[in-house]
Each structure stands twice: as structure tokens, then as C-alpha cells.
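note to self: dont lose this again. the chain is below, predicted strucutre after it. 147 aa total, dont forget to put it in the shared folder this time
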Amino acid sequence: MMPFRLVFPEVAAAETRTAITDDSLPDDLTAVLSPDEYGFDEYYCEEKKCGCRRVVFYVYARHAGKHVATINHAFDPLPPRSRMSAQSFLDPLLPQTELSPMLLNLFINVIITDLSYYEHLRTHYRMFKSIVANPLHSVHRKLRQGM
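---
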């Protein structure tokens, strides 16, 4: 997985989603999510032949200065016999914290329900995959060098 911001820094700066929490949240949320700005940094698969159609979000708490959740989201609805239990989930193979379940809840119920943002993500996926498919793009040098 590679950060979208590495390939498209201007687009990422303008379109990366953040959620700002404050004391106005309901008590059940403030008990878990302290006031902070949570950035949802997009990562996409850099495998040329992979058609996974998903995005992984590394969620960072700006004021706390740390990574607090890793959310995996599939663009396509799950097939009936999928091994995944949900279209959006906390990735069990990547770092999580005690805040991760609440951030997943925020993601599912607020962030991903914004249709214009969801279209941005789908566009970002296509943009990223078009660069991966272009062997002359400078990102391939970064991939060969291990970033």
C-alpha cells in the first residue's frame, strides 16, 4: 500500500478528510474520543495487476501526534460468500488502538456516508491506479527504491 499524498500531494492536501471532535460531542463519544483533529490518510495498492478496489485509511490524531486506527474499506458491496464480514472494518493485520472501534463507527456513520467524498475516493482510486499502470511515471522509481 502506498499513500495517495505521495503521488498526488496537492489533491491530497485539498481532499483528505478530517474529523474534528470537541466537547460538544455526546457523552458516550467524548468518553472515548478526546478533542482532537483526526485525519484519514488514504493508502492504495501499488500492485499493477491487482484489482482489489479498496482503500486503507491510516487515521492520525493531530494534537496527540499519533496513529490511532487503520480502517479498510472495499468500494464494492460484499459478495454473498465473502470472507470479509463488512465493507468497512478495522484491519486486523495493521496497528489499532483503544480509539479504533469508535473511529470506525465515526467513519461508517458519518464520513463514508458523504456521497461527494465517496466519489472523491473512487476518483482517487482511479487516479492512483492509472499512475501505477504507467511504467514511465516517477512513482515507479520510488517503488523500486523502496520509497
